[in-house]
Design a protein that fits this description.
The chain is α+β, with helices and mostly antiparallel strands. The protein is about 30% helix and about 15% strand. It has a 5-stranded antiparallel beta sheet, with helices on both faces. The chain has a 5-stranded mixed beta sheet with strand order 11-10-9-8-12, covered by helices on one side. The chain has a two-stranded antiparallel sheet with strand order 1-2. A hairpin with a 4-residue loop joins strand 5 and strand 6. Helix 4 packs antiparallel against helix 7. It is globular and about 75 Å long. The N terminus is likely disordered.
Length: about 475
């Protein structure tokens, strides 16, 4: 297989050149066979005898096919009889790795056997720690268990207060795309689709001279407590508004995010309408305004997968606001944080020690114990967190895709480690699942929030821990 990395995701393409060459050779051979023995084949296919040079064709006996037996599932579930690692042996193997210099002194960790829920390793797992982007696991669980995973987020355009004015009303979908298809979010709605509906809904020949962008669905500050001054805009975050395009990027496929996402969305609509000179302002839609156009995001479950795989802060913040709205909280950083913890508590997750300032984990003020991270992962894996399975499918696969596409220990079997990464200044974390050498599914979380050894050393140390779990018999 071959891989093409683009915009934080990895597209896998098959190497088909060798197959095509073999196919061409096979076709040529078949043609020669048909030309040289056409008469004999004709006789065989018609059930009679064909003659070549006055001699009867030799009859071909019926094929004797082997008995293949019952089909065995290719993607069979893990055996519940696989041996559970011995906690003492596992601890002896992991402790030297968890105390590696690259992780620093503030390491907390937990390993849980998913099937039995038995804790196999506990290293200060109840201590609150700065989770970085592993906090997105909590946002994912809250979104999947509070919202319908098939639910979508609506963006619409309504008529303005005066002729020639339209209002772009943001519903909180940051995936709305300036290109078709989106260069970053598969299945995203497009501004072009909105524009087409607007033109069809307005009286023929009516020019759009003014576009109002309504982001009033969200309230409160545009950045969270604990975000640095350089975080928004940056290559990974922007001011959080209810209306934006392409994940608040300055242009489709760009890494850099914008400082004015709402106005960018209005400009994108003006371009799509063919009126780039239209006046674009922030404001609110008139009460009872006629709807001219609507588009919808991909399902919540797909948005969760994208937020986790690409560690997309803007998408995670958008999901947290949807949870807040569903639980009748303000669609603000504070309201979203309250909604996430409330949702987790209702789901039976012990939230002792959890303190959130945002939904993405970008805030240095966030605190989450390692045991809460493993509870989120193991609950999604064993089904006790009903509807949360998309959390697992969204986890990056080590050495294959997402934020782990270029990470992973070479000695670990492919596909055995799936985990959410987390990185802030002095913080490195990894939380997800590992399948042991004996076929046992483990949930794990490691958070090092006092790291001083640099990104490479810390990430290598975390990868060593994950590889040790995947390679463990530990009996």
């Amino acid at each position: 297989m071959g891989t093409i990395a683009s915009s934080g995701s990895t597209i896998v393409t098959a190497k088909t050149g060798r197959f095509r060459r073999r196919l061409v050779i096979g076709i040529i051979g078949l043609v020669l066979l048909l030309v040289g023995g056409g008469l004999a084949l004709s006789g065989l296919f018609t059930g009679g005898s064909a003659t070549t040079g006055g001699q009867d064709a030799v009859a071909v006996p019926e094929a004797d096919l082997p008995d293949l037996g019952a089909a065995v599932p290719v993607l069979a579930s893990l055996s519940s009889d696989a041996p559970v690692p011995d906690p003492g042996v596992l601890s002896a193997k992991l402790t030297p790795l968890l105390t590696a210099s690259g992780l620093g002194s503030g390491v907390s960790a937990e390993v849980v056997d998913v099937a039995s829920r038995k804790v196999l390793l506990d290293l200060d797992a109840a201590d609150p720690a700065t989770p970085a982007s592993t906090a997105k696991l909590l946002t994912a669980v809250a979104a999947l268990t509070t919202l319908d995973p098939a639910q979508t987020i609506e963006t619409k355009v309504v008529a303005g207060a005066t002729p020639g004015e339209v209002v772009l009303v943001g519903g909180g979908d940051p995936t709305l795309s300036r290109t078709a298809p989106s260069q970053t979010y598969p299945g995203a709605p497009t501004v072009a689709a909105l524009a087409k509906q607007v033109v069809a809904a307005m009286p023929a020949g009516t020019p759009v001279s003014r576009i109002v962008v309504d982001s009033s669905l969200y309230s409160g500050p545009l950045t969270a407590s604990g975000w640095g001054a350089a975080d928004a805009p940056s290559s990974y975050a922007a001011p959080v508004t209810a209306t934006s395009v392409d994940g608040a990027r300055v242009s489709p496929g760009s890494q850099m995010r914008s400082g004015q996402p709402g106005l960018d969305a209005g400009a994108a609509l003006a371009d799509a309408l063919g009126t780039p000179g239209a006046n674009i302002v922030l404001g609110q839609a008139p009460a009872g305004a006629k709807t001219l156009a609507t588009v919808h995001s991909a399902p919540i479950s797909r948005l969760v997968e994208q937020a986790l795989s690409m560690s997309d802060n803007m998408l995670a913040e958008a999901l947290s606001r949807q949870v807040a709205l569903a639980l009748h909280k303000p669609a603000s950083f504070e309201g979203a944080a309250q909604a996430i913890t409330e949702a987790l508590s209702k789901d039976g997750v012990d939230i002792t020690g959890v303190a959130l300032s945002d939904g993405s984990g970008l805030s240095q003020n966030d605190k989450v114990p390692a045991r809460v991270l493993t509870a989120a992962v193991s609950g999604a894996a064993d089904g006790s967190l009903h509807g949360a399975s998309a959390l697992l499918s969204g986890l990056p696969v080590a050495g294959y895709d997402g934020t782990l596409f270029d990470r992973g220990e070479a000695g670990a079997a492919p596909g055995t480690v799936r985990a959410k990464t987390g990185t802030l200044l002095g913080v490195h974390a990894l939380a997800g699942t590992a399948v042991t050498a004996d076929g046992r599914l483990l949930a794990f979380a490691v958070v090092a929030d006092a790291s001083t050894g640099g990104d490479v050393a810390a990430e290598s140390a975390l990868d060593d821990v994950a590889a040790a779990l995947a390679g463990c018999g530990c009996r």
